[in-house]
Design goal:
The chain is α+β, with helices and mostly antiparallel strands. 18% of the residues lie in helices and 27% in strands. It contains 8 helices and 30 strands. The strands form 8 sheets. Strands 3, 23, 26, 27, 28, 29 and 30 form a 7-stranded mixed β-sheet that branches. Strands 11-8-10-9-13-12 form a 6-stranded mixed β-sheet, with no helix packed on it. A hairpin with a 5-residue loop joins strand 1 and strand 2. The longest helix has 19 residues. The radius of gyration is 30 Å and the shape is elongated. The two termini are 24 Å apart.
Length: 457
């Protein structure tokens, strides 16, 4: 796991589980040391107790709004200019221009069924030559004449209707008879039935799904004008991390290096590189100042321990801290900084579930806005079981969806991935916790939600 050891002070207040029943809170002082302080139980009104005066972190909802605002400032710049993308590379992008039909759809009268094109009342004499899709326009039919026709084939001029294969039969003389009433125009798709050339099929801002790719191809497009994917560079920090094999000799496996790139791609990003830097302030500064990515994502090193270099490096390069700690558990020491005019850095805590919390709190709204993706519609479900809360911070708890309720999962400590690996969503638990049956806002995980989020490329 990318769980930074407490020698560095990383996630010190997250790594220790507070006891709700004993009403204990973990409070981090400015030097990074954790202290236990008794917290009075929630008042009868349901309001959470007041946090200590030194608890200066940003509220969770405000942190997410700040990340989205930071991205909106960038999208007004030239670096986010639309790009022309081939259809095969456009999945998951957002249209930057209207998708206008380049042709009528269908572009000629076509058969909606396999059967016979018929003219006038039956019975009909059947031509020797049939009509297949992809062929030039066939000769006109005369009254009393029919021609075998395939689905999608051009309708011969003067055709009255298409008689489905299962609704016709031939007699001993080869003449075609209908076994049910024939209605004028039946099973014929007239030219322009779906749209006319120049009609707007989709507005700017529409997400390019597989169905949109099909529609664009049918309408005559080879490329789409889209908002480019934000480019993301991932910097994995920590001398204690292994890239293969089982943990040994005080070293642990890096869980975030394999997990973050596909997750970031699911959020609409293009991951340009993943670099492992260890605990080196010089290497971190060189990597940050030399990066041309739109967003830099770091893992670990966001607290105040002896090898937590993110804050000092950001200070030395003159970065602007937009969010410095968030009132959320796990993941309190996350941060968001503007490192250049059109570049941001998201500092994730090193503990795996705390990093996921930071990813969904700061990286998701930042990347979604940069990619011009629509914000997901918020929704709630009742919790089937009690969800323990923090006395004065929001808590994100992995849940599975069962029917019309959400079931909180165990193994939800900041260093654990077992709960989130089985989860469908994260429940947003308010300060003080949530009772069974209480409605909770849910954050869908990309692989569990409907739509484009399931695509990791």
């Amino acid at each position: 796991m990318t769980a930074r050891s407490l020698r560095s002070g990383e996630d010190a207040e997250d790594a220790e589980e507070f006891d709700v029943e004993e009403a204990l809170a973990l409070v981090k002082e400015d030097n990074g040391a954790a202290h236990r302080a008794p917290v009075p139980p929630p008042q009868a009104s349901g309001r959470a107790p007041e946090p200590p005066a030194h608890h200066k972190a940003t509220p969770w909802t405000e942190a997410r709004a700040t990340a989205a605002r930071a991205a909106r400032a960038v999208t007004r710049g030239a670096r986010r200019a639309p790009v022309s993308v081939r259809l095969e590379d456009a999945l998951g992008l957002t249209l930057a221009a209207p998708l206008d039909a380049l042709t009528d759809l269908p572009s000629f009268n076509t058969s909606a069924m396999d059967g016979w094109a018929v003219a006038g009342p039956g019975p009909w004499d059947v031509r020797d030559e049939g009509v297949l899709a992809g062929h030039a326009e066939p000769a006109p039919l005369t009254d009393g004449e029919a021609a075998r026709i395939a689905t999608g084939a051009r309708i011969p001029p003067d055709t009255t209707a298409v008689l489905r294969s299962e609704h016709g039969q031939t007699d001993e003389k080869g003449r075609l008879h209908a076994t049910r009433e024939v209605v004028h125009g039946q099973d014929i798709r007239p030219r322009g039935q779906e749209c006319r050339s120049g009609d707007q099929l989709l507005p700017p801002g529409a997400l390019v799904t597989p169905a949109v790719l099909g529609l664009a191809a049918a309408a005559g497009y080879d490329t789409l004008t889209a908002v480019p994917r934000p480019r993301v560079e991932v910097l994995v920090l920590g001398d204690e991390l292994l890239t293969e094999g089982a943990p040994r000799d005080g070293l642990i496996r890096d869980a975030l290096g394999p997990m973050l790139p596909p997750w970031l791609r699911a959020l609409g990003a293009e991951v340009t590189t993943v670099r492992r830097l260890g605990d080196s302030a010089a290497a971190l500064r060189k990597a940050v100042t030399g990066s041309h990515a739109d967003v830099i994502v770091t893992t670990g090193g966001t607290a105040a321990g002896p090898v937590d270099h993110v804050h000092p490096v950001l200070g030395r390069i003159g970065a602007e801290l937009l969010v410095d700690g968030v009132k959320v558990r796990p993941g309190h020491p996350m941060l968001l900084a503007r490192t250049k005019e059109n570049q941001h850095l998201v500092g994730l805590p090193g503990n795996p579930l705390a990093a996921v919390s930071g990813l969904l709190t700061l990286a998701e709204p930042l990347l979604r806005t940069l990619a011009a993706r629509p914000a997901p519609e918020p929704y709630t479900l009742p919790l089937r079981d009690e969800a323990h809360g923090h006395p004065y911070d929001t808590r994100l708890v992995p849940v599975v969806l069962r029917g019309d309720s959400a079931v909180p999962l165990h193994y939800n400590g900041p260093a654990m991935l077992r709960g989130i690996a089985a989860a469908d969503a994260l429940a947003v638990v308010p300060p003080g916790g949530a009772r069974p049956g209480q409605e909770a806002e849910l954050l869908d995980l990309p692989w569990a939600s409907a739509g484009i989020g399931v695509c990791f490329t």
